[in-house]
């Protein structure tokens, strides 16, 4: 009898222990991004930053193991993004989605996450309107309004009176033009001309001539980083605009992954942006050191920071709400933490990151070019959400 | 008046870059009549090579240019012997498919070793100095490109029209069997012409990189530009490509000065109009 009792007790304990173990589960996070083709840099930056975060913080939250699953969509491709999300949600049973380099890729998953009640953390896609499409979207990157308005305010405070805007003729460019223009005029400045340059432009010399002829003291530029920015900044320095005293203010043109390719012509370019890899804080130095240790050839940029803070947010949401999507979104609202980019928080209405926007100037630092911060606009929310 | 002058100067400078990047194609596609979509690939290989030599090994620009062009020719020769030799006999569609396949291989190779970011080529700093022409400022490298482009078009014109090699090449392209029966070693002529085309592609890629920066997807990004220049110029005519490049450059620049909001549509409308009037291009060799 006593034996039986002991046996039962042992079984009970074992069951309890096993039951306890079953409560701790593997929580899967699906990362949808571009890992191949001309835009593969996005996926690479995301993945490396997540791996740095995991290396620093482990892969367990409350005893649950976190597993990241990566899906390639090969560029701006909403259909592929939707298919990837479907597969992740149904076959892999992910409880969180993340990634999203391009706006259409994020928009495409909105109906799916609404139905599945799964939070989707946007690491980049910077159009304000995305977060209106689903209450399950949370964004850790930036929006154009968030950086273009501070750029305009700073320019107005620092002597710019007449500005010509020169933007690439596509949605983000037009957003940037509107955001900068309205903010600059509010500060009492004048926009003397608005130039929209076709995306395929290779020779910017004619635009430089028009910028010169416009009589502006500053040009606000917005172009996709890469070949377009390379040719634009080259034309800016070679057509004598610098000598003519026409200032340059931009946003993300001097991205860390392409800045060295721009070369000497980039030195002195002023931009307003939310992250520079030489931001001076211990957290950022620790982040950069770990990244350098794991991926010696890599350099952190805004995509890395979006993913790093995104990973942090996912860990926090799991810690506070486990796998309950609705609870997790509620938990994310109002969260604030110290990020390598500075203090950040999640605005409860727009579910978008509130952050400092830094004014930086390109400088040489040893063998490389860096965006050196010298001024900042504090705690900027997504200024485009209510437009 | 100043605007008109600016348009002409900027247009010629831009047109010369267009000529530079497509002159190799006017040899392979124009003269040899292969639909060589891999043209940009050779430019990419040349540019990537120049990037590695100038940035990693600190080689000065001119020797690096020469070394890269030679390297591309060295790659092109076995490629012609082993692959292109068969492609010549393909139908046009098959040529398109085969050469685009070669482009993908080239892109993937560069992507694997150098990644998909911009591959800058270091030039002497004097090259980017602005030169004041009085009515406008032009970077020195544009002037260099204009001079090199003029030298190139003269050299090629003389080579094709005035030398024995040129006669052999034209004969071999027009009728391979007759040319061979007259004692012309057509495979060798083809090999030499192909190597020339690849070498010119490399020169164009490197010199044009100031405007069209080299990166892994270069061949696809600018494919339409290359093809436009050669098509508008008229197949088989180097001088045609030259005139086409200059007029397209001036047209595009004029569009950007005068009708900036119409943008690239202007450029393509102009091409449609041109090809409607002259379906075979500006200058066409009667065959």
From TrEMBL, chain A:
Record keywords: Amino-acid transport, Receptor, Signal, Transport
Alphabetical GO biological process terms: amino acid transport
Superkingdom per UniProt: Bacteria
Gene3D superfamilies in alphabetical order: 3.40.50.2300
Domain Leucine-binding protein: from-to ranges: 26-366
Pfam families with a match to the protein in the record: Peripla_BP_6
Recorded family membership: Belongs to the leucine-binding protein family.
Protein name: Extracellular ligand-binding receptor
Automatic annotation (TrEMBL), chain B:
Membrane topology according to the record: Multi-pass membrane protein
Keywords: Amino-acid transport, Cell membrane, Membrane, Transmembrane, Transmembrane helix, Transport
Transmembrane segments: 12-35, 42-59, 65-84, 96-119, 139-160, 189-212, 224-251, 258-277
GO CC, alphabetical: plasma membrane
Keyword hit for Membrane: yes
GO biological process per UniProt: amino acid transport
Subcellular location per the Swiss-Prot or TrEMBL entry: Cell membrane
GO molecular function: transmembrane transporter activity
Family: Belongs to the binding-protein-dependent transport system permease family. LivHM subfamily.
Name of the molecule in the record: Inner-membrane translocator
């Amino acid at each position: 009898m006593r034996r039986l009792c002991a046996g039962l007790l042992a079984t009970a304990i074992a069951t309890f222990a096993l039951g306890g173990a079953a409560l701790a589960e593997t929580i899967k996070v699906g990362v949808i991004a571009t890992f191949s083709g001309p835009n593969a840099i996005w996926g690479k930056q995301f993945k490396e930053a997540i791996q740095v975060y995991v290396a620093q913080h482990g892969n367990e939250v409350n005893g649950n193991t976190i597993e990241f699953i990566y899906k390639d969509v090969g560029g701006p491709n909403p259909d592929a993004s939707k298919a990837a999300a479907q597969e992740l949600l149904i076959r892999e049973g992910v409880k969180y989605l993340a990634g999203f380099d391009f706006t259409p890729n994020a928009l495409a998953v909105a109906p799916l996450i609404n139905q599945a009640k799964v939070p989707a953390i946007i690491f980049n896609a910077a159009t304000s309107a995305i977060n209106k499409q689903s209450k399950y979207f949370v964004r850790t990157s930036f929006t154009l309004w968030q950086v273009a308005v501070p750029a305009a305010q700073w320019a107005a405070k620092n002597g710019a009176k007449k500005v010509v805007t020169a933007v690439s003729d596509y949605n983000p460019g037009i957003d940037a033009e509107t955001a900068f223009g309205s903010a600059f005029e509010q500060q009492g400045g004048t926009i003397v001309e608005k130039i929209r340059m076709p995306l395929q432009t290779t020779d910017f010399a004619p635009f430089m001539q028009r910028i010169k002829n416009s009589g502006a003291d500053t040009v606000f530029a917005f172009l996709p980083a890469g070949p377009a920015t390379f040719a634009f900044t080259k034309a800016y320095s070679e057509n004598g605009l610098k000598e003519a005293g026409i200032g340059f203010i931009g946003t993300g043109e001097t991205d860390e992954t392409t800045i060295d390719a721009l070369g000497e012509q980039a030195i002195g370019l002023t931009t307003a942006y939310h992250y520079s890899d030489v931001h001076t804080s211990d957290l950022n130095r620790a982040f950069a050191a770990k990244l350098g240790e794991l991926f010696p050839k890599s350099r952190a940029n805004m995509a890395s920071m979006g993913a790093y803070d995104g990973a942090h947010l996912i860990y926090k949401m799991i810690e506070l709400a486990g796998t309950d999507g609705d609870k997790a979104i509620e938990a994310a609202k109002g969260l604030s933490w110290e990020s390598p980019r500075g203090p950040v928080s999640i605005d409860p209405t727009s579910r978008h990151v509130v952050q400092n926007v830094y004014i930086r100037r390109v400088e040489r630092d040893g063998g490389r070019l860096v965006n050196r911060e010298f001024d900042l606009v504090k705690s900027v929310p997504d200024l485009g959400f209510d437009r | 008046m100043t605007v008109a002058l600016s348009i002409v100067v900027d247009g010629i400078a831009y047109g010369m870059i267009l000529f530079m990047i497509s002159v190799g194609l006017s040899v392979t596609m124009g003269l040899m009549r292969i639909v060589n979509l891999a043209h940009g690939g050779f430019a990419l290989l040349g540019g990537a090579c120049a990037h590695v030599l100038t940035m990693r090994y600190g080689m000065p620009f001119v020797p690096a240019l020469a070394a890269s062009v030679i390297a591309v020719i060295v790659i092109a020769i076995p490629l012609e012997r082993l692959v292109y030799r068969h492609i010549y006999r393909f139908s046009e569609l098959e040529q398109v498919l085969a050469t685009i396949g070669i482009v993908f291989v080239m892109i993937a190779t560069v992507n694997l070793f150098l990644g998909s970011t911009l591959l800058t080529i270091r030039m002497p700093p004097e090259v980017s100095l602005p030169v004041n022409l009085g009515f406008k400022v032009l970077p020195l490298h544009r002037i260099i490109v204009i001079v090199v482009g003029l030298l190139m078009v003269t050299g090629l014109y003389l080579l094709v029209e005035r030398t024995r090699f040129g006669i052999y090449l034209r004969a071999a392209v027009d009728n391979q069997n007759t040319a061979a029966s007259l004692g012309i070693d057509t495979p060798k002529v083809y090999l030499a012409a192909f190597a020339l085309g690849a070498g010119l592609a490399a020169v164009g890629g490197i010199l044009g990189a100031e405007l069209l920066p080299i990166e892994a997807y270069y061949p696809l990004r600018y494919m339409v530009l290359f093809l436009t220049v050669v098509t508008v110029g008229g197949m088989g005519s180097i001088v045609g490509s030259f005139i086409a490049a200059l007029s397209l450059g001036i047209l595009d620049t004029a569009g950007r000065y005068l009708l900036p909001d119409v943008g690239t549509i202007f450029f393509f409308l102009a091409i449609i109009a041109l090809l409607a009037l002259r379906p075979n291009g500006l200058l066409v060799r009667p065959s």
